[in-house]
């Protein structure tokens, strides 16, 4: 008998990441001599789907568009190996999405994406939502498609989680269909304008807003409630995909009915572990690894405690 509950559908991008390691990320006009080179399955949508599946407990499907090149097979295999059920829109004659990443020795990165087939995902491609509790979206596919998916899900009683990345302005009609908005500080500023994190989330007309704050942790505002979750202390090697790991793990836990505070802690631990490994999907931890970190790491082990996090966010 299956123990999976609360199905999740992820609709979004899949890219093959071309990663070069270098001492630092080049400035405009600068050429940097790199070192190691490798390719990894990536794309915000696919990364989040893998993170959702590896978090366990929620049946995970993914709607994605791929070309007819060799890159497509790599991405499909990564999803299948992670327990994701792919729903693939095949696009002959179009390249599969790619991303070119420079990774510095201090774990920072610079990323350029060539969307390829991702740009051809349309509203008509959305599958039936029967059995789906949460729909997880990002902004690496056409904005009108994202808005159509959110609108359809809202009408079907499916909860919509939107990771508003990469940063761009969004219409109020799309945000009105979102139940949980996940952003980093830069993305939040794009949507809410200037001010402290506390002031910005208060201005967002979304039931729940989650803000990831890098090595500091995260903050969530649901209705009038504020939750702060300090980060877990790790030795970061590569931050690529850490935010996607957070989104997928968070959605998986919410789909199982986990209380928000507990879901934030689980997602924060998963994201921290993802920073200790190279690659995007290759760095996503399994549920057992996350639970081991949670058991071994009380909150006070974080380099940024709750009080410091609250001050950073403008709560005190």
Strand content is 25-35%
What is the CATH-assigned architecture? 3-Layer(aba) Sandwich
Shape, per Cα inertia axes: globular
The SSE order reads EEEHEHEEEEHEHEHHEEEHHHH
User: How many discrete domains?
Assistant: 1
What portion of residues is helical?
25-40%
Could you list the spans in which at least 5 consecutive residues all have pLDDT below 50? none
Q: How do the strands line up in the largest sheet? A: 5-4-1-8-9-10-11-12-13
Averaging pLDDT over every residue, what do you get? 94
CATH topology: UDP-N-acetylmuramoyl-L-alanine:D-glutamate ligase
* Count of discrete alpha- or pi-helical segments spanning 4 or more residues: 10
- Helix/sheet category: alpha/beta
Number of strand segments = 13
CATH class bucket = Alpha Beta
- From the N-terminal CA to the C-terminal CA, the straight-line distance is 49 Å
CATH superfamily: Ribokinase
Largest sheet entry: 9 strands, mixed
Radius of gyration over C-alpha positions, nearest whole angstrom: 18 Å
Describe the protein.
Helix 5 crosses helix 6 and helix 7 runs antiparallel to helix 8. A 9-stranded mixed beta sheet has the order 5-4-1-8-9-10-11-12-13, sandwiched between helices. It starts with 6 loop residues before the first strand and ends with a helix. It contains 10 helices and 13 strands. The chain is globular. The protein is of the alpha/beta class and 316 residues long. It has a single domain, classed as Ribokinase (UDP-N-acetylmuramoyl-L-alanine:D-glutamate ligase).
